[in-house]
């Protein structure tokens, strides 16, 4: 029985100044009833004394049988004491009687009955059932009491969700009109969405009655541990924000990141997704992307390619250049500006090596296709012009040769006899 309805929803009932008026009396961890403060003793201290006496009595229940809680009135003093096994458990005062609107004897009898029921050992199943019933009943009471706060929090969550969606759409639309980069659009939309949710969460917790001073103190104590445990996660997210803001590459760009090469398909705050040229998906943490050297092959629409051609020393280099230039002019996939270049690269041992430089589409497919087509066309054109492209020639010299030589200086080999 809870004697005062006003105290049903809290273990301690306090006034606005923080002084405790009522505190629970506990038996085996369960609240039985509440006692108020006295002129010279606060409710909290009084409850501690009574709870200690009850705990001491229960601790000795293994060695002695517990008697019923009896009431002993003290009429001259207008009080009554509750006793068990010749021990005084508590004193019911005139102040208690006034607090609960009963006489001292009636209130003492009620509390004695409640203590008897709580102290009496009940079967395990009944005790478990009583505890479950009390817990569910307390939960229902708390839910009903906090229903306005819960409804307000749910309404605030709905409002926050709607505002966050609108802010993300506005930020995304604005980024599309101004930036024109998919990664930046994603960054602005997500930052706006997350910012609204942070503010909405703060307001929602305030509606629920959260003490922000206590929350900030707890966060201050645990920030170091959280920082160490989430170091990699936070590093990936921070690196993702920097990558989306700096924009070293965008979606559909073809890049080289460390040992990976392929097309960027998605840029998230945690990881970057790349599709390699052989069809595999690679998820690279943004921390690794941020610290790696990045080669963006498609940052410019054009990319220079080159091939090496080796011609014979007797060939006319000017004529060879003219043949190559004529061949390149017939290929439609080459960029006209900048024009192709034909340079004498080196005078090798057996060939004069030329380097042909030309500009093609920077996309990998166009780059490889045109480089292959240029190599084939130049080879066929030089063959048609009867320009030799010799391979490397190696001269082998033998010392202390055992082979006899004739008068012309040619080596003679011994033939096995016939027959």
Describe the structure.
There is one protein chain. The chain is of the alpha+beta class. It has eleven helices and 14 strands. It has helices spanning 43-59, 94-100, 104-119, 124-145, 147-178, 182-207, 212-229, 231-246, 286-291, 317-329, 364-384, and strands at 13-14, 20-27, 30-36, 70-74, 79-84, 87-92, 254-257, 260-267, 271-276, 281-285, 294-296, 302-311, 341-347, 352-361. A hairpin with a 2-residue loop joins strand 2 (20-27) and strand 3. The longest helix has 32 residues, at 147-178.
Mind sketching the topology for me?
Elements: E1 13-14, E2 20-27, E3 30-36, H1 43-59, E4 70-74, E5 79-84, E6 87-92, H2 94-100, H3 104-119, H4 124-145, H5 147-178, H6 182-207, H7 212-229, H8 231-246, E7 254-257, E8 260-267, E9 271-276, E10 281-285, H9 286-291, E11 294-296, E12 302-311, H10 317-329, E13 341-347, E14 352-361, H11 364-384
Helix pairs in contact: 5-6, 10-11
| Radius of gyration (Å) | 46 Å
- Count the E strands: 14
Helix and strand sequence: EEEHEEEHHHHHHHEEEEHEEHEEH
Q: What is the subunit arrangement here?
A: single chain
In what range is the share of β-strand residues? 15-25%
Relative helix content: 40-55%
**Terminus-to-terminus distance:** 131 Å
> Largest sheet, order of strands side by side?
10-9-8-7-11
Which stretches are poorly predicted, pLDDT < 50 over at least 5 residues? 1-12, 14-18, 411-419
Q: Return the structural class.
A: alpha+beta
Mean pLDDT score = 79
Overall geometry: rod-shaped
Reported for the largest beta sheet, the result is:
5 strands, antiparallel
Count of runs of 4 or more consecutive helical residues: 11
């Amino acid at each position: 029985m809870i004697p005062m309805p006003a105290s049903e929803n809290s273990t301690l009932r306090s006034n606005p100044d923080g002084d405790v008026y009522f505190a629970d009396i506990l038996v085996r961890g369960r609240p039985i009833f509440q006692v108020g403060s006295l002129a010279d003793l606060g409710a909290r201290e009084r409850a501690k004394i009574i709870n200690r006496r009850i705990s001491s009595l229960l601790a000795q229940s293994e060695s002695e049988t517990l008697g019923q809680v009896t009431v002993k009135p003290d009429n001259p003093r207008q009080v009554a004491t509750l006793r068990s096994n010749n021990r005084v458990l508590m004193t019911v005062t005139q102040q208690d009687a006034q607090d609960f609107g009963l006489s001292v004897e009636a209130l003492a009898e009620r509390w004695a009955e409640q203590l008897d029921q709580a102290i009496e050992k009940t079967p395990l199943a009944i005790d478990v059932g009583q505890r479950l019933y009390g817990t569910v009943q307390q939960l229902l009471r708390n839910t009903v009491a906090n229903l306005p706060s819960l409804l307000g929090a749910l309404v605030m969550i709905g409002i926050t969700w709607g505002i966050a969606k609108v802010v993300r759409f506005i930020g995304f639309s604005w980024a599309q009109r101004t930036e024109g980069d998919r990664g930046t659009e994603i960054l602005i939309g997500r930052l706006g969405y997350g910012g609204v949710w942070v503010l909405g969460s703060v307001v929602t917790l305030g509606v629920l009655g959260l003490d922000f001073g206590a929350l900030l103190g707890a966060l201050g104590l645990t920030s170091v541990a959280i920082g160490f445990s989430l170091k990699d996660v936070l590093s990936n997210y921070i690196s993702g924000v920097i990558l989306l803001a700096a924009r070293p590459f965008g979606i559909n760009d073809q890049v080289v990141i460390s040992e990976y090469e392929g097309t960027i398909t998605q840029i998230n705050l945690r990881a970057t997704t790349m599709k390699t040229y052989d069809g595999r998906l690679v998820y690279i943490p943004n921390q690794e992307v941020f610290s790696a050297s990045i080669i963006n092959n498609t940052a410019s629409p054009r990319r220079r390619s080159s091939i090496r051609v080796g011609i014979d020393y007797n060939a006319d280099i000017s004529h060879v250049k003219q043949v190559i230039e004529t061949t390149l002019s017939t290929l439609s996939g080459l960029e006209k500006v900048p024009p192709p270049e034909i340079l004498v690269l080196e005078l090798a041992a057996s060939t004069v090596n030329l380097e042909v430089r030309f500009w093609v589409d920077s996309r990998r497919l166009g780059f490889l296709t045109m480089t292959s087509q240029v190599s084939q066309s130049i080879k066929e054109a030089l063959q048609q012009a009867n320009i030799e492209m010799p391979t490397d020639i190696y001269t082998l010299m033998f010392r202390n040769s055992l082979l006899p030589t004739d008068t012309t200086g040619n080596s003679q080999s011994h033939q096995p006899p016939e027959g």
